[in-house]
Structure formats: C-alpha cells, structure tokens
UniProtKB/TrEMBL annotation:
Keywords: Cell shape. Transmembrane segments: none annotated. Involved in formation and maintenance of cell shape. NCBIfam families: mreC. It comes from the Bacteria. This is Cell shape-determining protein MreC. The lineage of its organism: Bacteria, Pseudomonadati, Thermodesulfobacteriota, Desulfobacteria, Desulfobacterales. Belongs to the MreC family. GO terms for biological process: regulation of cell shape. Residues 122-267 form the Rod shape-determining protein MreC beta-barrel core domain. Gene3D superfamilies: Rod shape-determining protein MreC, domain 1, Rod shape-determining protein MreC, domain 2.
Length: 286
C-alpha cells in the first residue's frame, strides 16, 4: 500500500521526533537512567542524531555555496563591465593619440605653405568602382571653392569639383578624369599624371628620350593653375619604352594611401583671388 521510500521517511521522522522529545524531557527532568535502557536509547538515537546533524550541516553548506556562487557571479559581471569600459577608454585614447599625430604632421606642413590651409574630415566615399571621389565636411561657408587642391603631408590627394554650404566633393588623382601637370624631380622630365581608375596613375606624354627610371619621384610642376609647384605625387613604379611611338609608358604609384586617409588639407585661395572666384562659383551639391 505504501512505498518503501514513504515508509523509510516516516520511520525516520518518527524516530527523529522521539529523539527531540526525549532530549527536551531529559533536559527538564534529569534523572538516572538504567544502564540497559540508556544503552538501547543511545544505540537507536545516536545514528539518527548524527544523520540529522550532518543533514543540517549539509543544508547549511549548500546555502553558503549557493550564496557564494551568486556573489561571485555578480562580482564577475561587474569586473567584465569594468574591463569593457577600460578597453573602450583605452581605444578612445589610442584614437586621440593617432589623430593628434596626424594633425601634428598637418601643422608641420602648414608651416612651409604660403597659402592658408583648411583641415577637413572625410565623411563619405563614392562606392562606385568607376569614380574616385569622396566628400569632406567643409564647404563654401568655410571658404572652399571648386578647383582648390586637396593634399596631405604625404602628397597630392586631388581637387575640389563640387561645393555646397557645409560639404564638398573631392576628385582623387587616381580618377580617370584627373590630370596633374608634373615633373620628374631628378631629371625635370615633364608629363601629365593621369588617373587609371585603380590604385595607380600613369605619367603620360613623357617623350622616349627622357631619362626616367624606377624609383624616381614625380612632383607637380605648378603649370596647370591648380596645384602649387613641388607637391609630391608618387614614384615611378615601372617604365616601358616601346619600339614605336614618341612616348614611353610610365606607371606612377601615389604616395598617398587613399584607403587609409581620414583627414585632408584644402589649400585656400589668397583673398584677392577668392573674391574674383566668388562670382564663378558652381551650384551647390543637392
């Protein structure tokens, strides 16, 4: 009728209750107990008391372990949050340090430049594979006009082709529509650096008789009316002199890493030139 487990626990609790009652009564009315009866009582009650004591101690240990686990879990969560916050702060400090280093190089460049320099941040890039342009956060309100050269300390980036109130579009020297009148710094051989639509440029209209070698530095000539003379563009990465034609094929690798730059410098016009240019300003970006 009753399961073994039920019977076992029933007997256990009955004996435990009897033991507790016996202890209470013996504490209130202490009297001598016969040796045989005392031995029998200890024999029966002793294991039960021992088991009850262990059970209570085990329960207490479990509770302590549980509360310790909860406390450690909370501490671990707090430590994880503090570690994440510390890493975020470290990353912010690293970004600030790198930005300061870039701006320091910009300041060094400005010291040797006669024209006023406006620092701008790149806020967008053309995703199209056919055009090499990006957007900067400076516009005609900051004095930016179309045709202004855009540079970084490493060299020429491109020129401004569209202007809005707060933003401008820059055409990179690697775009197919770009061209910079240039010189080979070592031999003064003249040509035009044209964009290829990829990561390199070509040095066009370089006569075959010109002495041009790999590693030569190419700079702006200042004759195109856009870029000041002597700005670095790139180095000669390959030269091919064919058997026919009057020009040689020269490939230029730009000094500027266009995938990594984040800020640029716009070379503004002198005040008198800016006043004349205001009248011919193109329509702002839509």
């Amino acid at each position: 009728m009753f399961s073994r487990r039920f019977v076992f626990f029933s007997v256990f609790f009955v004996l435990l209750a009897a033991t507790l009652i016996s202890l209470v009564l013996s504490g209130k009315h202490p009297r001598p107990v016969a040796q045989g009866a005392g031995s029998l009582t200890l024999t029966l009650v002793g294991p039960l008391q021992y088991g009850a004591t262990k059970l209570i101690q085990g329960a207490g240990s479990l509770w302590r372990i549980y509360f310790d686990s909860v406390r450690q879990a909370r501490e671990n969560e707090l430590l994880r949050k503090e570690l994440a916050l510390a890493r975020e702060k470290e990353n912010e400090y690293l970004e600030l340090a790198m930005a300061n280093e870039r701006l320091r190089s910009f300041l060094n460049f400005r010291e040797g430049e006669d024209r006023e320099v406006l620092v701008a941040e790149i806020v967008g890039k053309d995703p199209s594979p056919w055009f090499k342009t990006f957007i900067v956060n400076r516009g005609w309100r900051d004095g930016v006009r179309t045709g202004l050269p855009v540079v970084v300390p490493d060299g020429i980036v491109g020129q401004v082709i569209e202007v809005a109130g707060k933003y401008s579009k820059v055409l990179l020297v690697t775009d197919r529509m770009s061209g910079v009148d240039s010189l080979v710094q070592r031999t003064r051989a003249r040509g035009v650096v044209k964009g290829s639509g990829a990561s390199f440029c070509s040095f066009s209209y370089a006569l075959r008789r010109y002495d041009i070698a790999e590693g030569d530095v190419v700079v702006s000539s200042g004759l195109d009316g856009i870029y000041p003379k002597g700005l670095r563009i790139g180095w000669v990465d390959g030269v091919v002199r064919g058997d026919e034609g009057i020009f040689q094929d020269v490939m230029i690798q730009p000094f500027v890493d266009f995938e990594r730059i984040e800020e640029v410098m716009i070379l503004l016009l002198p005040d008198e030139e800016e006043a004349d240019d205001m009248e011919s300003q193109e329509e702002p970006l839509s």
